[in-house]
Amino acid sequence: MPIILPEGLASAAALRREGIDVLHRPPRHGAVLRIGFVNLMPDMTRTEIQFARLLGATRRHVELVLGLPPSYRPGRAGTEHYARWDGASLPRGLDGLIVTGAPLEQLPFEHVSYWRELAAICDWAAIEVGSTLYVCWAAFAALYRFHGVRQRVLPRKLSGVFRQHVVDVTDPLVAGLGATFSCPVSRHAEVVGHDVPWRRGLARLAHSPQSGLCLVADAPQSAYYLFNHLEYEADTLMLEYQRDRAHHADAALPRNYLPNDDVSAAPPLVWRRPAERIFANWLAILASRHTEAAVIAAHMSVQ
């Protein structure tokens, strides 16, 4: 199905070149899921493409509504299509929300310039949005905001492709995944299982013995925490490795990533099907809640 993006967005042109149908306004007929997108990554265009590609691979019309905390200052251009979301300008009628990662894992949350604004977005989303998907650093941030759990900084960056084990098969987000799936990991921090207050309605959905927690559901906050990067392209870990290597000669090659650790070999995109499945499942959750809300609204209007 087409992905609906603002006109003039650089990522829209790139997606069209891949053969993905991109619209600039919702179609007159057919249901459309409105997904808020808070993009905190330095390369905003690349991140837009990665998430839009997965959302556009489903059978649903999806409109991305772009927003940023007012104090966010990107390292690159590309924010002209993003609204600044504060308490007075938060969008209405969103079915879902995605908040991306950010390269801030070694910084205390309170030291982030836009922390209060992001916390306000999290609080608003828990009440007003059908479901929020927090990714990597944003997952750490939301878990801290809602439950006071601080991430633990790792002695070395954890990078590679790790097999995740599905723990709770009853959650609709992991339906059809099977017992295990591969997932890219790229982070300087982690959340340890025994730090999480599971009795507060949180559920462990997937984890790896090597890379730790991967997916956590937080039903009371209508949220999912994805600590890893299912949106990554095949070469993203390699690009990050080359960047890290330029600054640190001892940067480690991503684990379980390249065939025989051969830097000249093309990495296999073994996580694409699981990624598409999880995003399709998430949209199905949003669609179900959208329908329920419409039925309730129709019922209230006739009373």
What does this molecule look like?
The chain has 303 residues and is of the alpha/beta class. The chain has a single domain (3-301), classed as Class I glutamine amidotransferase (GATase) domain (Rossmann fold), CATH 3.40.50. Helices cover 29% and strands 24% of the residues. The chain contains 6 helices and 12 strands. It has helices at residues 10-17, 44-55, 115-128, 137-147, 236-247, 272-301; strands at 3-4, 22-23, 32-38, 61-68, 83-84, 96-99, 131-135, 152-166, 180-190, 202-208, 212-218, 223-226. Strands 1, 2, 3, 4, 5, 6, 7, 8, 9, 10, 11 and 12 form a 12-stranded mixed sheet that branches. Helix 1 (10-17) crosses helix 2.
Largest sheet: 12 strands, mixed
Name of the level-1 CATH class: Alpha Beta
Number-wise, the strands total: 12
**What oligomeric state do the depicted chains represent?**
single chain
Question: How many separate domains make up the residues?
Answer: 1
